[in-house]
Every structure is written in C-alpha cells, then in structure tokens.
Amino acid sequence: MEIHISYGSQMIGFQVPGANLTGIYQPFETPGCDDPEVEIRRALAYPLDLPPLNLIAKANEKVVILVDDHTRTTPTDLALPALLEQLEQAGVRNEDVTILVTHGTHRLSTEAELQRKVGEAIYASYRIEQHRCDDQANQVYMGITRRGTPVWVNRLAVEADRLIGIGHVGPSPYAGYSGGRKLIVPGVAALDTINASHTHVVLGFRQFGRVDVPCRQDLEEAGALVKMDLVLDVVLSQNERIVRAFAGTPERVFREAVVLAKQVYEVTCPAQVDFAVTSAAPYDIDLYQAVRAVEYADALVREGGSILLVAACPDGVGGEEFYRLMADRSKRPEDYLRDVTRRSGKVTFSVLGYTLARIKAEKRLYMLTDGIPPAEFEAMGFSQPASLQAGVDELLRQYGPQAQAAVFPQGSATIPVLQEEST
After folding, report:
1. Which domains can be identified in the chain, with CATH numbers?
2. Does the structure show a pLDDT above 60 at 207?
3. Which three-class secondary structure state does DSSP give residue 417?
4. What is the pLDDT of residue 1?
C-alpha cells in the first residue's frame, strides 16, 4: 500500500505490505461547516448560559481578549472580527481593546506570526501584547488551589473590565483536551504557577482524552480565580476547518465542546502493534511540541516495539534548556521526577523528560526530520533512518513477516482508544 502522511506543509509517502498494516488511524472525517464566519456569529448571538456580548460589555470598559499563540491552529483571524463587531455595538472603542497572546512557557511570536494569527487588518488597528511567564512585575497573585498551586496571572487579564477568550478544544496529552480555562492557566500564568500545576501531569501518564485527570482539575480551579466573561471555542475537523463554534461561560463551553471533540479525535484501535509510524502534524513546529505524537502512538505500541516519528521541526528542538535535559543519558525516569518535585527549571520540560524516559525504557524511537541536526536527536535517544521508506523497511525486517504496523497521518491530533478499553 502507498500511504501519505504530513511533513510540515508537505505530504510524503511510503509503502507497506497490506498484510502488515493493522490500520491507518486519524481524526474522523467530520465535515466542516459551510460558512465558518456564519457559524461563529451564530455562537456569539446565542451564547451558552450568557446574554450576547453586546449586552454585557459597556462603553469605556477596558476589554482584554485572550488568544492562543503560533503553535496552535485556532482560526483566530476568523473569530476576531465577529467578536470585535459585538464590542463595537456595545460602544467599546478600539483603543480600549487589548489582544493578549497566551504563550504559557512558549517562545514569543514573531511579528509575521502575529499577523497571521489575528489577521493583517486587526494587527494594524488594535493593541497586541504577548504574555511573558517570567515577567513577575506584571503578575497579580490570585490565591492557591486545593492541590497547592499558587496562582499568579498577567495583570492585563486580571484588571480588565471584561475578559474574553478565543481558543479551540482539541487533544492535549496533559489536560485531556485544550480549551476553556486553559487560556488562563497555563496561558497567561506565571512560570511558578505553570510549574506547580504541571507537577500533577505525571499522575495522568497514559490517560489520554480524560478530563478528570489531576492536571486538568487543577488548572480549572486555578483559572476560575480569574473572572472570564465569555469564551469562544471551536472544534476543528481533520483538515482544520471549523466543525462547530461554542460561546458562553468557560465551564459550559468546555463541557459541550469536548463531547464533539471526542467524536472527532478519539479513534478505536486494536492492541497492540509492533511499530507505529506517526506524523507530528499539526504540532510539528519543534520537538517539544512534536513529542505528543510519540505519546499518543505509545498507547498502541507493545513493549519492545518501535515508534517512527516524522516531524519537520522548523524551530528545532525547542530551546537549549530542553535539549540539554533530553540529551542527559544518565537520567532515569525517577530523576526527572526529582526535577519535577524540586521544580528545577521549567517543569514542563522535566515532565516531558519523564514521559520520554518511560517510553524509551520500553520501546525504540526513530525520527525523520530536517529541522534538527542528527547528532542532536541521536543524543536525545532517537535513531535516524536514511529515509521514511528505509525506516519502515528496517522495522519490517526487525519484526519479521508477521509484523503489525499502525500509521498515524496526524499523530498529534489522534487519541488511540484501545479496543479492550472501549468495550
């Protein structure tokens, strides 16, 4: 069989005998809505558990709109015009609106990335700020969660008269699904808050798609310390078109949207295969983002099996600190847990180190990329095939004539649900 998977903005192909192919697993081909702008306006006109925004906001109020960053596929440029139109109807002036990019611990966006995210006209007409998790002078202490997470949040979000969020509900290895209050924590939270919240991630290891994991529960409680007037979240199709938009309170929007998101992204698969070929699309800007494809494939691959990651990684590994941590071959899984407990550096990096160390202890990892020098990803425990086809052929030789393979063309957005679990 000839199979094609995403690699950056391209599609690359390889062949595998049909007898060795267990299946090609990807988000369901849910049709996008006919007119995404009409769908967004419908959601804003009839928000869940709230009156429309133009009846909530008032003239002379300071409004902050939270949007996710360049690493996310939310069609913010489609959502903003309708939302800003409602604010204008309420008498809110352009100069009283701030668009705040919720980076969490990610790098700041470039000017070109900001223009693509919000659209050129809005970029030229509105104040746009980027959250820095290390900017303590511009953070406000909000309280502490029951799990012990102290919460500091960007001052702009806390002091706004109206706080609005735009995001999407899609797979998140740590929180089950993105969306809702995740725009606040980790989105515009302090590094200390993000570190504390992410110490709970290890308790949800290999529990993908669940929204009752401790990390999700903690970030929901932390985010609720900040009043959000309205959230506009979308669920996207396999080709990143809007399936449906949801507007309203953060709690109701997330509860409704995640039901649809599970139908799109959770795919029943047989357990367990010898190896998986997985594309990191659509989160393949760097290895830090791309590893989620390895995490999801890990659920399907048996102990002693292999995972071949295909990721363009134009931004490389994802930072020198992350590379040094991943390249330390002396570290065992429990060593990363010590880093998490001590909150050494960015806990998000140590959590990912723990996850990869657990996976590497059981399986072999391969990686095909042009964005990272071979010496670097080999230092992190990945082997490099000469080509995608060469890598597949080698895995077929390793596991013999009866080898069973799975393919994930969009591995970062596909949550495997094993048949034995689904029954």
Report:
1. 2-26+270-422 (3.90.226.30), 36-264 (3.40.50.11440)
2. yes
3. strand
4. 87
